[in-house]
């Protein structure tokens, strides 16, 4: 599996489907970053319904999407096949030094993340990096299979040339 193969799979969908065709100009614009995010329920449905307005990714290491996403980037949603996308409306990357900082993220963002469950937050204890992405224009698309078989939860398919390594924010 290569990012080139996934991009080719998505490009074929853009070229062959009316519903996907609306993405043509943004897909062709090299200034727009393109990402593939793996989702599970209920979070996938919450994004597509518009209820989940912040996508969060927590990790022990500074891996994608941390410092790899810009406002305006496209994020394709994969749960088996690719089933939709959203446009990134805001980006906030933070380092977490302790549980108190995680608790502050929880108090500030749990409603927008749609993560009120204590289990959700308990599983994030010990994570050192968080990326918070504003979700706008979440759109369901006809399902398209792509050639991704590894276990990564986020794949940067095309990074915007403007992104580079940005400074993260401290709480």
Strand tally is: 6
Which structural category fits the helices and strands? Answer: alpha+beta
Major sheet strand order = 2-5-4-3-1-6
Uncertain runs are 166-171
- Termini separation (Å)? 37 Å
- The CATH topology label is Archaeosine Trna-guanine Transglycosylase, Chain: A, domain 4
Total domain units: 1
Work out the helicity level.
25-40%
Count of DSSP helices? 6
Radius of gyration: 16 Å
Overall pLDDT, averaged?
Answer: 93
Shape: globular
- Fraction in beta strands: 25-35%
Which architecture would the CATH scheme give at its second level? Roll
Tell me the name of the CATH homologous superfamily.
Answer: Hypothetical protein
State the order of secondary-structure elements, H for helix, E for strand: HHHEHEEEHHEE
Q: Overview of this structure, please?
A:
It holds the Pfam family ASCH. InterPro entries: ASCH_domain, PUA-like_sf. Residues 39-131 form the ASCH domain. The protein is an alpha+beta fold and 171 residues long. It has 6 helices and 6 strands; from the N terminus they run H-H-H-E-H-E-E-E-H-H-E-E. It has a single domain (3-157), classed as Roll (Archaeosine Trna-guanine Transglycosylase, Chain: A, domain 4). The chain is 29% helix and 30% strand.
What's the helix and strand layout?
Layout: H1 3-16, H2 18-21, H3 24-28, E1 34-38, H4 43-49, E2 54-59, E3 74-78, E4 82-95, H5 99-113, H6 118-122, E5 129-144, E6 154-158
Parallel strand pairs: 1-3
Antiparallel strand pairs: 1-6, 2-5, 3-4, 4-5
